[in-house]
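Action item from last week, closing it out:
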Amino acid sequence: GPIMSLRLGHVPTIVVSSAKAAELFLKEHDAVFATRPITQASAYLSYGGKGVAFGQYGEYWRRMRKMCTLHLLTLAKVTSFEGLRRAEVEAAVQGLVDAAAAREVVDVGERVGELIEEIVFKMVIGKGKEEDKRYDLKGVVEEAVILAGAFNLADFVPYLAPL
């Protein structure tokens, strides 16, 4: 049929293979299925599910989301960093112009990563990464991407997890 229930190890899983059944799950009963599974990676990355990205759906998650949307991600707050973003982009472009004039080979992906890292550092910490070397933001993001994307058998067979 259009709905199938499976158990992947200890994880109950529902497979929906029709648009009408998917609409029931995603529109009419969305609150019932809104929670996210707690994996070892998500527990590690979000201090046991305390963050917005990996938190369990419920009152705490709704309050966290509200705090983010009303205080951290408002138009006024984002706009307040426009000058900082503009200055950093201009400096990065000037760096590319200088490198082109010197006929240097440039890894644009690396430069864009450095630009984003510098902007985030200044927005979150208030200093550039060269001014405050205590934080390895790039390393943290790389670790998070690896952990979030890695398959972990212990998430499905809990007795394989470390004690």
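Closing note: The chain has a mean pLDDT of 89.
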